[in-house]
Amino acid sequence: MESAPHQDEEISAPGLRKIIHVDMDAFFASVEQRDDPSLRGLPVAVGGSRERGVVAAASYEARKFGVRSAQPSVVAARLCPALIFKPPRFEAYRKVSQQIRAIFREYTPLVEPLAMDEAYLDVTQDIKGIGSATRIAELIRARIKAETGLTASAGVSYNKFLAKIASDQNKPDGLCVIRPGEGADFVAALPVRRFHGVGPRGAEKMAALGIETGADLRAHDIAFLREHFGSLADYLYRAARAIDLRAVKPNRPRKSLGGERTFDRDISTGPGLRQVLEGIIEMVWQDIEKAKAQGRTVTLKLRLSDFSIRTHARTLDRFVEGRGEFAGIARELLDDLLPLPLAVRLMGLTLSGFEAAEAPPPVEGGGQMVLF
């Protein structure tokens, strides 16, 4: 939105939280451009190759040509012939992520990482006594730029849903503040595609029902939403009214370790889904290794274009032994579900069944893999 408010305009009504959502800009690609100055200003894709694979992340220069995450590399190369493909360097990204987390914790202990490149912060009572969530967001963004050479966007509001939407409003390198009293009107004007969890196919389905904005969504009752959107209905009902009572939870107890990806474009082919699965296996296994986790159950989750969910799991009578077995089980789970009746908009993979061993601690970068 427009310029940030002064402190006396800040979110300060009794009982309201002060939430910041920080989201790094084109994180993987930006790290590659930072570490290799010859790539700066050029279209860069992380993951895949010109002949095969899937784009994991794209620089803003590449996005201008229509290059997107989860896109087949051959399509990306066709859209942008000058596209430069770089293999992912997860350890480099994790190192930067740890630097960023350390900055967050100088302002509040209430930090909830969603992925390596984004997190919620509750600064209702900040460590430094600054008092203004907007000012804290400005300071954090400046610190990130100074210490890592990368830019971050931030959203500031009184709940998590609005803060996350706000962080995407003025990307890249932007700040958006949604104050109390503004949330419902802000959401009403949004295209439904901006709601987290609503992809292109979901937006198409909504358009067919006459739902194109938050205001259109708010006009329907919960029974209508449940009929057409199943398990997402309650979320959509609350989101259309800018309601989100979730607290920032820095120490969520883990019963599983995993991650999921929502695709920019739905994927309908077996080869395309298998390629995406390989990237998820790699990311999840790195978190498993870092947490020294041991589990017995591997679960694959797919959300189809009609919002229905398919899950398939396998439980062993012992702990999964190493990356090879974990990856093999994941591939078999996907093969068991193929072919699917509809395209897939989200894929997730988890390891669980820690009950006979000490549950692993939270891992930096765990949770939803929305960084792609």
From TrEMBL:
Instruction: State whether it acts alone or in a complex, and with which partners, per the record.
Output: Monomer.
Record's keyword terms, sorted? Cytoplasm, DNA damage, DNA repair, DNA replication, DNA-binding, DNA-directed DNA polymerase, Magnesium, Metal-binding, Mutator protein, Nucleotidyltransferase, Transferase
Q: Which organism is it from?
A: Novosphingobium humi
Summarize the protein's role.
Answer: Poorly processive, error-prone DNA polymerase involved in untargeted mutagenesis. Copies undamaged DNA at stalled replication forks, which arise in vivo from mismatched or misaligned primer ends. These misaligned primers can be extended by PolIV. Exhibits no 3'-5' exonuclease (proofreading) activity. May be involved in translesional synthesis, in conjunction with the beta clamp from PolIII.
Gene name, Swiss-Prot/TrEMBL: dinB
Q: Where in the cell is it found?
A: Cytoplasm
State the protein's name.
DNA polymerase IV
Residue(s) at site: Substrate discrimination: 28
A molecular function annotated in GO for this UniProt entry is:
DNA-directed DNA polymerase activity
Similarity comment: family membership: Belongs to the DNA polymerase type-Y family.
Q: What class of enzyme is it?
A: transferase
Q: Which reaction does it catalyse?
A: DNA(n) + a 2'-deoxyribonucleoside 5'-triphosphate = DNA(n+1) + diphosphate
- Necessary cofactors: Mg(2+)
